[in-house]
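Service request form, structural biology core

Requester: graduate student, group of Dr. S.
Request type: structure prediction, single chain
Budget code: on file
Notes: please return the result as structure tokens.

Sequence provided:
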Amino acid sequence: MRFRGTYRIVFFFLLSFLFGTKTVFAQQTEPVEILFLGFDHLNQLANGTPQAEVFSSKKQAELAKLNAALKQFAPDMIMVEVEPREQARLDSLFRLYRSGSLKLTDLNGGRSETYQVGFVLGKLLNHPRIYGIDHYEATSQSLLSKGENIELFRQGLQKLQNTARPLKKAVQQDNLSLYDYVVAINRPAMIQLTHRLFYNMPALVINGDFSESGVHSTDLSKLDKAYIGAEFISLFYNRNLKIYSNILTAQLKNRGRKLLVIMGQTHVGVLQDLVEDNPAYKIVSPLSYLEPKK
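Core staff response, request fulfilled:
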């Protein structure tokens, strides 16, 4: 009888250990949540009119509404379009901003979403730092200008411009709130439209060349002009692969569990594609916070 009771105790202990270990393991392997928020860069809204001014009381109220919505996500890491090599400068500016020693109106580029959302939200959440995860390589839309089937690419570019430009103009004229503009360009259909233009359609363009006046910052001496459109895609894709690497390594080093990544909207589609293939991550739609179901 004594041994039977001992067996029961040991059996109970083993069950408790196994279920307890399973629970801890499950907690440790929960995917990291990542929310991508795309912007048409705020510092490019200015057109000389008071209505387009990011620092106007109206647009500041709209940004406050945006930050309040994002605060509900409660990210523990905020990542912005600044290169890691500039982290020391970013840290210095954020410390000054948190302490009240720096106003965004006095900061060069202070209209940018890096500061208007990254810094403001970071201060609201009492974060110690904002993380730079960009890898800067300039590539302009006008770089791809010659080749067979170039008209198909131009038609796609025109479709994007016809969709996006009226929205931007409405924001500049105060006919559309900045908050609603951010919602609009982060809807799946808009992200897909942008993504197809830069990462799919250019592959149709062959036997061409890049414009001599097009902006780029990489070595183009070894281009395969027979596949000029694919070369164009590779410029965008290569940059985003490095941004993706920066996101992964920053998260790994700092053990973040809820990441907010603030980038230009053209980056969102490709970064989401990369993250979707990574089981360690779970994508959270910004619309679940910006347009919550009632």
